[in-house]
Amino acid sequence: MTKTTRPFTPDWVSPPGDTIADILEERDWTQAELAERLGYSTKHISLLINGKAPVNEETALKLERVLGSTAAFWLKREAQYRAALARIEEENRLKEWTSWLDRLPVKELMNQGVIPKCNLIAKNKPSLVKKLLHFFGVASPDEWRSYYAGMEISFRRTREKQSDVGAISAWLRLGEIEAEKLDCPKYSKPKFEKAVREIRTLTVLQPEQFQPQMQHLCREAGVVLVLVPSIKGAHVSGVARWLNPHKALIQLSLYGKTNDRFWFNFFHEAAHILLHDKENIFLDEWDSGERLVSEPEREADRWAREFLIPPQYERELAQLKSKNDVVDFAEGIGIHPAIVVGRLQHDCTIPVSWMNGFKESFCF
Predict the structure, then answer these.
(1) Where in the sequence is the domain holding 173, given as residue range(s)?
(2) How confident is the model at residue 235 (pLDDT cuts 50, 70, 90)?
(3) pTM for this one?
(4) Which one, of 79, 25, 72, lies nearest residue 51 by Cα?
């Protein structure tokens, strides 16, 4: 059986000064003699041998002339030493940062394949910290707190008891990563308005038919649409945000996968892109009824509601009582019957238990 060879990673480091000291011992030279030959003070030679002073280009050339080998050898020796020091310092920092893991949905990210699965024991935690820093694209937990946790004020919206910021930040980052893979032209409001009108006609189709079409229509207008499964603790249905002044992102979680919810969520987020400024992050959560809704959220709700079923049809809508009525009405205005049922239930025109057979659970 062939054994797997692991790379040698000692927990000690050897400065170039160790090699210098070995040569001095072989030649029976003192540090004072070497200092005189190199043109340095004895203090500098002591610092050099102890790794406190670096071997720079000038020193490397002098060592080449006095002790032999090449300047490249001495510079490489120095680089290896500094890299080893940095590695040890990094390992110590990672150990100090392991408490950061308590703020993140580590097991959920393992289950989604974002990071490798492993036991959450002490020896594995520094490696997990490193992988999650890479995932978030930040240098340390401080930068994560500054960038992602700092977004919290922007996306507080619906719940008196807020969702888990770590879970939300992970879900947002998953969307960013997907969006980074996609190029698109600069955002055009007229093109996006046209795209949204075309997307409304797709509500009668199945996901495998409408998904590529709606993503293409959005992208051509400078809006990236990504579908990212919800992360436990995030309670997220969707978000509208700007990745830069020319590229918008609509991210849907498929939380509550029925088609009536999906389409209302999409048009709600589209309203944020069309109506509101580029500075805020408009994140929407499924909640238990205790809503702390801002005026932009009310505007987006109203816009989506009226875009799907325009106000001139409200009187006719209120009179729908049978399944056949719903089908005829939906066909007449060009949307899926489930959207009509969802509206009727929301307006308390029919009980929430009625006509749910029109609703379909999406699987993307």
Answers:
(1) 157-358
(2) confident
(3) 0.82
(4) 79
